[in-house]
Amino acid sequence: MDFPDLLDDFLRYVRVDTRSDEESEDFPSTAKQFDLARLLEKELIQLSLDDVRVDRWGYVFATLKTNQTEPQPTIALIAHLDTSPDVSGENVNPQVWKDYDGRDLILPRGDNVVLRTADDGYLGEKIGATLITSDGATLLGADDKAGIAEIINAVKYLNAHPEIPRPHVRLVFTPDEEVGRGTEKLNLDEVGADCAYTLDGEKLGEVEDETFCADSVDITVTGVNVHPGYAKGKLINAVKIAADILNRFPADAMSPETTEKREGYVHPHHIEGGVEKTVLKVLVRDFLEDGLKEKEDFIRDIVETAGKRYPGATIDMKVKESYRNMKLVLDQHPETVQKALRAVEMAGVKPRKNIIRGGTDGARLSFMGLPTPNIFTGGTNFHSRKEWITLEDMQKAAEVIVHLMTLWVR
Fold it and tell me: What is the CATH number of the domain that holds 379?
């Protein structure tokens, strides 16, 4: 299959800064996500799709109607507009490296940002491919603008080839996925789909039907602040208490940097405050809800012990549910995953069913009632200035979408 616009579309999308903001209370969290939403709206209208619109929350909708006379299901294809707040997405300057020969790639504006096959065995598998990176000063934004480009180019192909049978195809591009709010304002009646697929995965051939179960924990320490010159017996330092709590988290286990595969973790990722009040934020992850509870009980024991050690302080722990393992839902709809794996095979790629050590919009959508596995985009090193993707893998992802749509035709 030929997708002649895929590279140009992708390069155009990544140049639009759509970085989200986890501290913002607005929705979407950054107004600049509308810049890409409006751009996509214009392009989808030019493709003569139906029901094209951007709603007030920044969701982009469009429909490619079936070309069959018999009633057909509606299958949604979903990708997210925003990029990670962890790394700058401003003035992304994509670099295209044709016929990659395996050499070390020194990104021109990075502070010693180098891609090496010695460090990244997967990169070594891409000899001869067209590699796309940032210039090293920013992330690339393949997460998830590659997914957007692949969906749009698959729809272009289906539109240009009416001889290929298809169901109703619903396009949904969401804001704020990177800050865990991608489905917060999404109405499933507006999506109107029987099932969905997120194009938000990584390596070639991967189809993902499991995510972490995820919660967030806020530990708020309230101390007593008095003038330090006259503080003896009076001052209770919330910063020191929070540091003591943090120091009791294991350094060599149960953390992102020490776990892999199906191992969960607790991840203190943000601390802010002063003597009177300090807040410590912790991510809790496990593939099983029982494992999630065990880790939260572990944190609670640390907090309760600190409360006894510092009786003059107030230490409050709040747990907030983020998402749950979508496999609990997808196991009730096995055809959604089976068809995705078959579509990968039809594209001439070996399918690999995989787990996500993270979450996607699909996790929440599945529990909202819309079964939503995740399909690869071809990118890797997401949320990093070392993020990269190959054009060839993006083309395969677009081809998988085309095959997948044919499999849903009744």
Answer: 3.40.630.10
